[in-house]
């Protein structure tokens, strides 16, 4: 085992994570994670993937990947960048130059054609406007009278509609107030604490929207059978959201409760144990369906 692998394994165990949970958080196969801890990179698809996997592993367990790369550079394989042949680059440049010359030689002709077409179009528009003005002069008085009649009719209709609107607005306001009074807010009740796990009962909620913010933590959500529903690190400026409406039981594992706020439908959920006493806590939610 390399010093780098030993450091990553210690950080994982401090967070209480198994290799399966790190696999769920990073989407990296367990055998690659185990190879990183043991310093066995022969199974990896390439040196680039080794560095990428180490970076994801470090972030999942709360370590700075840049500091790891600098401190354990001897334990990490180097990348080898491919060089592009010089003669190929020159050939492509020459070909591009020829294409540009052909395009610029065609530009003057195209500009002249567009200019002539534009002049013809402007002349045609002016001619059509002159014909239209000559045809419209005899009917000018009739159109003015018809326009005045239409405006007067519109004003009368608008006045009638304005008089009816206050009554409709009052009825709609009363209906909205009645609906607001009948709605019940979500209820989240702490029903027991056992070790680092707190159990809550949720009622009066058809939809469940989970929102989590934190300066630095790790979030994992599982169902009653232990299957992973979501998992990722959350840092400063990040907002983690998850729709749990279809579940009647789910568990949220908070890697670091310091500064971490969990909300359900906009209502903050208090930890069963103070955050300064237990860093990593589990929150089980049982949904009561009506």
From TrEMBL:
One annotated GO molecular function: DNA binding
InterPro entries: Bact_Cytoskel_RodZ, Cro/C1-type_HTH, Lambda_DNA-bd_dom_sf, RodZ-like_C
Gene3D superfamilies noted in UniProt: lambda repressor-like DNA-binding domains
Region named Disordered: 155-197
CDD domains in the record: HTH_XRE
Biased composition (Acidic residues): 161-186
Assigned keywords, A-Z: Membrane, Transmembrane, Transmembrane helix
Domain spans labelled HTH cro/C1-type: 8-68
Membrane-spanning residues: 104-127
Name the UniProt record assigns to this protein: DUF4115 domain-containing protein
